[in-house]
Amino acid sequence: MSTNRFGKELKEYNYTKEELAKFNYAKITTKNGEILIKLFNQETPNTVANFVTLANDGFYDGLNFHRVIAGFMAQGGCPQKSGMGGPEWAIKCEVDAPKQNHKRGSLSMAHAGRDTGGSQFFICFVPCPHLDGNHTVFGEIEVTQNSSLSKLRF
Question: What are residue 33's phi and psi, to 5 degrees?
């Protein structure tokens, strides 16, 4: 078992390509409506598997976007609602994968340093090239769904 610098297990999922191919979209429901996100299941398989597994297990149910910064991003996925919580494990960053540009509508993993992400994620309101190579982009709001971004304006 490998661990990160904080001693947390680095979880690896063993879904087949056929199973991963089923993880195409995520739907996030907010008080303002639904957000439909295309997942990069082939480019970032472990990150997508982690996100989908947590969602299917009900981990995200009832959680809010605990950090919303106008002109930047909205962050969610913290069970403590403080930005400090997450599962007992972490996952490796997949920043060398294709589609790793933080643009308007990108879904990306939040973390406290390389290979420390677990459940927290953020959605970019604007391009954020300073995050490229540091945070795993594992999905995006498709151009046809850009109205979904308006659901995050709390």
Answer: 130, -170
